[in-house]
Structure formats: C-alpha cells, structure tokens
Design a protein that fits this description.
Length: 136
C-alpha cells in the first residue's frame, strides 16, 4: 500500500478523503492535501480554496459512524411495547390498552358512547309506549 501523494509506504488513511498517506504527508487525521485544500495538479474545482476546507457532512465508509438512536414504538398509556396503531386517532397501543375493531381503548370507549345513548333513547321510548298502552 502506498501514499497517494508520493507513493511511499502508507501508514494511515486520511479521515477527510479516505486516501492512504505516509507519515510525511499525514497531518494529524487528514492528509496534507485536505488540510490545505489545495491539491497540486488536481483540476477539480472542489479542491481549490484560500482557507482549509471543512469536512463534508456525508462521511465516507472508512470513518467511524454514530449509531442511530432507536426507540421501539411505545404505548400511549403505559409506554410499553406497542403492537398496534389506532385507526381512529393513530395512537400506538399495547395489548392491554387495545379496544375493539382496531381501536385504542379510549377510542373504543368513545365509540361505544353512541351505542349507549341510542340504547337509552330506545329504553325511554319503550317506557313511554308501555305506559301509554297500560293507561291509555
């Protein structure tokens, strides 16, 4: 393996461009070309600068990468592992807080409110009809 600048034996890899460099051209973690941002004889426009160039946001495969933070989906009520998503409010819920028909427990209860109101109205109408039939 040889240095990409002088072809001497390489001792490390530049953290900016990823090329192999020898001890003479290694400037800490970067090569001398990346430190000065001027590459002699290199016609690319991205290599000419009056000030040192900053490291790119997209790091190369050779650089150590930070692992992405991962949080598993959490239940809206207990923060436990959520296995379902409510089709009404899009909240995540666990098995303990699951309602009927793909709803969370809260939406399942509020969906039953209409049924309870309708049953109450039907009971009132039945009572009126029975009273009217008996005393009418």
């Amino acid at each position: 393996m040889s240095c990409h600048i002088c072809q001497a034996e390489a001792v490390s890899r530049c953290y900016t461009c990823g090329e192999l460099v020898c001890a003479q051209h290694s400037q800490g973690k970067t090569c001398s070309r990346c430190t000065t941002a001027i590459a002699e004889g290199d016609p690319r426009g991205d290599r000419i600068s009056a000030t040192p160039m900053e490291a790119k946001a997209n790091h190369g495969w050779w650089r150590p990468q930070q692992a992405d933070e991962y949080l598993p989906p959490a239940c809206y009520a207990c923060q436990g592992l959520a296995r379902g998503v409510c089709r009404n409010c899009a909240s995540r819920y666990c098995a303990e807080h699951a309602g009927a028909n793909g709803l969370c427990k809260q939406c399942g209860q509020s969906a039953m409110l209409g049924v309870y109101v309708l049953a109450g109205l039907a009971a009132v109408v039945m009572v009126i009809l029975v009273v009217n039939w008996l005393f009418g």
